[in-house]
Amino acid sequence: MNDTMRAVSLRDGTLALREIARPVPGPGQILVRTLACAICASDHHYMDHPEVAAADRSGMRVHAPDQDVVMGHEYCAELVEYGPDTQRQWPIGTRVTSVPALFVDGGMRIIGMAPDAPGGFGEYFLLSEGFARSLPDDLPVERLALVDAMAVGWYYTRVGHNDTTVPLVIGLGAIGLSVVAALKQRGAKTVVAADFSPSRRKLAREFGADVVIDPAERPTFEQWRAAAWGNSEDVHDRIALAGLAPCTVYECTGVEGVLADIIENCPIGTRILSAGGAGSDTISSATAHLKGINLQFGGGPAVEDWYETLDLVVSGGLDPEPLIGETVGIDGLADAFERARASDAPPRIVFTTA
């Protein structure tokens, strides 16, 4: 096997197709060949905000501007080679995937966010054998590559959903849509979903949203109140609110100012789960305090969420394929990475080697 490979790598702040060293599996690791890998907003965040990786004391993200970092953490791959000290569970050629974490030298890296943990934007990358799971051969590799995206929604709904609330999902990119799908999987009776994009609102319907909102038509929370309470009028009296459904907001935009707007306009006692991860935002802590807002940032998915989602996707209980708007080869990957930033881009563009 050649000791180099083609990969779209990040170096000195620039993403380009390069010839770089093929990774060599260490103890407990396996070498895999990329079959499909999706472009995620987290890849954009890693590239655009190196200060986040530089400040990560866990060492899971590594800021290494002068080295090649091969991103890509939503993948389906083929087993090529076992490293030393492995159990050799599957035949060479088996399709595999894994939670995007790699054990290296006693520590752990997020795959695709460190030079020693290359991801799926190259021809080959590494997995920890203990995290890997075999995959069936009769499912599209693009669908199998989207487990990680769907697992985010599975996590947020596990910690956020209960039967008394009427959830509101704001922002219908891949993560917002995964939240919609997971809410319906968990039995939510009325899911309200908001986005300015008609195509994304249509996708939300496909994933099970009961009410879709165009914020350009009427204020978002006015429309939420109409769906949840049957009356669009705001209610500030806590006694009157006691008879109305509470609101749980899943913020999935990553746009500065959205979180502040939610806090200003949501009902008293709202719980907000912020999955969007805007680079910075300014919120009114006084307003949040007066309303008794419960705000949670990030935090998932946990390993159990990831593998539960994998089982759902493999069994057909959860189908992420509507997220896929385009597939590209390695020669078009760097350009697709930039196009994926646009608000009108499909929720997922997937690099495939077919």
From TrEMBL:
Pfam families in the record: ADH_N, ADH_zinc_N
Source species, domain of life: Bacteria
A GO term, aspect molecular function: L-threonine 3-dehydrogenase activity
Gene: tdh_2
Signal sequence bounds: none
Swiss-Prot/TrEMBL keywords: Oxidoreductase
DNA-binding among keywords: no
EC number: 1.1.1.103
Keyword Oxidoreductase in record: yes
Lineage: Bacteria, Bacillati, Actinomycetota, Actinomycetes, Mycobacteriales
Name of the protein in its database record: L-threonine 3-dehydrogenase
Domain Alcohol dehydrogenase-like C-terminal: 174-314
